[in-house]
Amino acid sequence: TGRIELLEIISSSLKSRRFVDCYKSVLTCLKVSDNLLAVGLSDHRLVIIDFITGNILLNLLGHHGLITCIVKLSDEEIVTSSNDGSIKTWNFMTGRNILTKHADNLNEGIEIILLNTPDNMILSGSNAGRMNLYKCDNEAGKIDLLKSLVNKVLS
Questions:
Q1: Whole-number Å distance between alpha carbons of 149 and 71
Q2: What is the CA radius of gyration of the chain?
Q3: 27-33 and 36-41 beta bridge pairing
Q4: CB distance 55 to 47 below 8 Å
């Protein structure tokens, strides 16, 4: 625990490139984008790692629970969810937390998020059986709830 191994694929085989020390935290989710690796850790940190050098570029703090999902919103922005019941958008180049949206019930953890990037729509699923559809407007500084479904079966 506490260590991420960066691997390189060479001729259908894996070669270890380097290790990144994450201070005895457990990896909870990750997202690779170009030469950057965004990693959610059990100590509630979001870590941005240079995939080529293995250097930790940013330690982002803001969630108060496990980070459960990371998705890319744009070339400089990612969205994270947490079992603390929040969704956050981040500029992963500067480390700035742009927006935060909390679940209506703070005991309801957000387990997964999906994006429709052209329209900046966020679909979240919670551990309480709720699905929420949001519109993300970073310029206006808000995330608006458009629709909420509780314990419904989608077909």
A1: 22
A2: 16
A3: antiparallel
A4: no
DSSP codes of every residue in the chain: --EEEEEEEETTEEEEEEEEE-TTPPEEEEEEETTEEEEEETTS-EEEEETTT--EEEEE---SS-EEEEEE-SSSEEEEEETTSEEEEEETTTTEEEEEEE-SSTT--EEEEEEEGGGTEEEEEETTSEEEEEEEETTTTEEEEEEEEES----
User: Do the beta carbons of residue 126 and residue 111 sit within 8 Å?
Assistant: yes
In angstroms, how far is CA 89 from the centroid of its own chain? 8
* Distance between first and last Cα of the chain: 40
pTM reported for the whole predicted model = 0.77
Place of tokens 């559809």: 133
Nearest C-alpha neighbor of 44 from the set 21, 64, 17? 64
Q: What confidence tens digit (pLDDT) does each residue in 75-117 have?
A: 888 889 898 888 888 988 898 998 888 877 667 788 777 777 6
- Total residue count of the chain as it appears in this document: 155
